[in-house]
């Protein structure tokens, strides 16, 4: 996938791409595809701007109504169990904690593994490697018991720590460090620079793009977590927004407060969407790199 | 690959690697070991003591019709999610690749669903297909189709498959689009000069050239369907009706946290660990191969 980050090629002379009618047809299909893919989001947005009655008497309208401010205010400041603003804050802390924590511990260990020869290096490397792809989903019960044992239920550290135990980021940094020219470390050593000097002054600045790309990926990963927050935040004021939406549905036969729920859904997707769209290039690069 | 130039010392690197090792040890290796350990026991009804049963939990699981059904459900579910998310993505990527102008704008639009959490995607699709107020359900009713995913197992499966695949279309699209952009135009043009029409060129040249991407996406989409779709299932069907959408990960949760059957849940975790391990090896083999060509 190394080619993904190379710039698009110059359009070749028109032999294989479509012109005229065919071109319009391709555009039309593409637009249709985008509309179909986009429809669920549009519908959620419309639902978040109309009164409850417009939804409970189907079919619901397909154009936004005039209740935008009312619904979003209600969601943000009162919500159903807990104000959505609180849940957004929890999600932000969790996503930032996971992104920053994972990057910090992985860049340090990648530095140690690549730039030092020390006893047990290979063993540790394999230990970390084993954690590469095992998601928290497969070890939920024992991990839950560990967190409960530490008294970390309903806490930010309980939300964050188990999810930063993974090796993907370490691998990415290791791959990158291996491509850094040896001369740089050599020069630093000749100059008598200590390893940490080299790390801070040379390696860290060189890793800037990698760090940023990884940050985008990890932020979304953290923000979109569901199962883990569902298990360990029994106190509604610690709920994250992604898991909190489901908690807004009433049990039994009561009718759900759809406008508020859909407003919450929109609020829950805005931060990751902004991150993805605004850092599109970095994001695609990070995505393609981190799957290498 | 190794560095020729390294720094001296052993204390500093150990300190540097310590945070990751401690975190992995406490939150990864210990719980994973605990899962293996617990899978060998059955707790008594009061949770006061544990009785050693050896591989009893596994034997019981593998003979349990519900667990076997869950395996089958997972296989069907992940196959469908992989297909439903990869085929439209490839189609859209081929379209976008044929456009010289505007492809970037379409890409920006198509990225959106990737950022939407599976659980939120579940709520969006639930909203459209809700039996009482869902707009799609309503129009289906108008056409005379009695849509009810709450009772109909196939409809429930269809809904969770579509809701799970939706965000993945964006993801697969990005990879296919990048791969298509990397296909040398000269090869395509040579074929075009030889008179090969578009579809012939696509099946004989482009698709084989895309096979590394396809293989990679197959593996990651299966992993996704196995483990990351919990949110979709939990928000839309909670595993029902009659366990028709209870995939393995959902069952670990349902048995461990709802049913409080810790021994069985731990044994299921161990089986899942093996499945993931297998998939990891598969993916790693593939990565190794790719690094060398």
UniProtKB/TrEMBL annotation, chain B:
Topological relation to the membrane, as annotated:
Multi-pass membrane protein
Is Membrane found in the keyword set? yes
Which Pfam families does this UniProt record tie to the protein? BPD_transp_1
User: What domain of life does the native source organism fall in?
Assistant: Bacteria
Q: Which residues form the ABC transmembrane type-1 domain?
A: 71-283
Residue ranges annotated as transmembrane are 12-30, 71-95, 116-140, 160-181, 202-227, 266-287
Q: Write down the PROSITE patterns for this protein, in alphabetical order.
A: ABC_TM1
Where is it localised? Cell inner membrane; Cell membrane
The UniProt function text for this chain reads: Part of the ABC transporter complex UgpBAEC involved in sn-glycerol-3-phosphate (G3P) import. Probably responsible for the translocation of the substrate across the membrane.
Tell me the protein family, please.
Belongs to the binding-protein-dependent transport system permease family.
Please identify the protein, giving its name as recorded.
Answer: sn-glycerol-3-phosphate transport system permease protein UgpA
Which source organism? Thioclava arctica
């Amino acid at each position: 996938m190394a080619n993904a980050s190379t710039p698009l090629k110059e359009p070749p002379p028109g032999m294989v791409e479509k012109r005229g009618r065919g071109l319009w047809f391709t555009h039309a299909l593409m637009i249709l595809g985008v509309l179909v893919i986009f429809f669920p989001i549009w519908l959620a947005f419309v639902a978040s701007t109309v009164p409850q009655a417009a939804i409970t008497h189907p079919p619901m309208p397909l154009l936004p109504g005039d209740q935008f401010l009312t619904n979003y205010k209600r969601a943000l400041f009162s919500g159903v169990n807990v104000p959505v603003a609180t849940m957004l804050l929890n999600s932000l802390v969790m996503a930032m904690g996971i992104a920053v924590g994972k990057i910090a511990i992985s860049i340090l260990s990648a530095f140690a593994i690549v730039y030092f020869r020390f006893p047990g290096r290979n063993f540790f490397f394999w230990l970390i490697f084993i954690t590469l792809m095992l998601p928290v989903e497969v070890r939920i019960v024992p991990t839950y018991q560990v967190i409960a044992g530490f008294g970390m239920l309903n806490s930010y550290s309980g939300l964050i720590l188990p999810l930063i135990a993974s090796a993907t980021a370490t691998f990415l940094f290791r791959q990158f460090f291996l491509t850094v020219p040896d001369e740089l470390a050599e020069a630093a050593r000749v100059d008598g620079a200590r390893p940490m000097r080299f790390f801070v002054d040379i390696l860290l600045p060189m890793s800037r793009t990698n760090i940023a790309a990884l940050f985008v990926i990890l932020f979304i990963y953290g923000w979109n977590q569901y199962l883990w927050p569902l298990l360990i935040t029994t106190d509604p004021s610690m709920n994250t927004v992604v898991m909190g939406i489901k908690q807004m549905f009433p049990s039994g036969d009561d009718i759900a407060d759809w406008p508020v729920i859909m407003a919450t859904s929109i609020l829950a997707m805005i931060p990751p969407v902004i991150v993805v769209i605004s850092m599109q290039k970095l994001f695609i690069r990070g995505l393609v790199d981190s799957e290498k | 690959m190794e560095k020729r130039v390294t720094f001296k010392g052993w204390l500093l690197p150990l300190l540097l690697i310590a945070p990751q090792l401690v975190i992995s040890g406490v939150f990864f290796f210990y719980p994973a070991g605990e899962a293996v350990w617990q899978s060998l026991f059955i707790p008594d009804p009061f949770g006061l003591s544990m009785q050693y049963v050896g591989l009893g939990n596994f034997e019981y699981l593998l003979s349990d019709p519900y667990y076997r059904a869950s395996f089958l459900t997972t296989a069907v579910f992940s196959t469908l999610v992989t297909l439903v998310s990869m085929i439209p993505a490839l189609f859209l990527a081929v379209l976008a690749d044929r456009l010289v102008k505007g492809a970037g704008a379409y890409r920006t639009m198509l990225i959106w669903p990737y950022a939407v959490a599976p659980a939120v995607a579940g709520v969006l699709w639930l909203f459209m297909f809700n039996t009482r107020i869902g707009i799609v359900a309503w129009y289906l009713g108008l056409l005379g189709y009695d849509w009810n995913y709450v009772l109909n197992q196939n409809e429930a499966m269809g809904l969770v498959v579509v809701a799970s695949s939706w965000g993945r279309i964006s993801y697969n699209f990005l990879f296919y689009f990048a791969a298509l952009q990397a296909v040398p135009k000269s090869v395509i043009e040579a074929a075009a000069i030889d008179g090969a029409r578009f579809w012939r060129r696509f099946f004989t040249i482009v698709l084989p050239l895309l096979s590394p991407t396809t293989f990679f996406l197959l593996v990651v989409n299966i992993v996704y369907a196995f483990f990351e779709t919990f949110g979709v299932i939990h928000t839309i069907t909670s595993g029902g009706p009659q366990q028709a959408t209870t995939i393995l990960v959902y069952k670990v949760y349902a048995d461990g946290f709802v049913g409080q059957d810790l021994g069985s849940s731990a044994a299921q975790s161990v089986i899942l660990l093996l499945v993931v391990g297998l998939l990891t090896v598969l993916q790693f083999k593939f990565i190794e191969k790719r690094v060398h060509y």
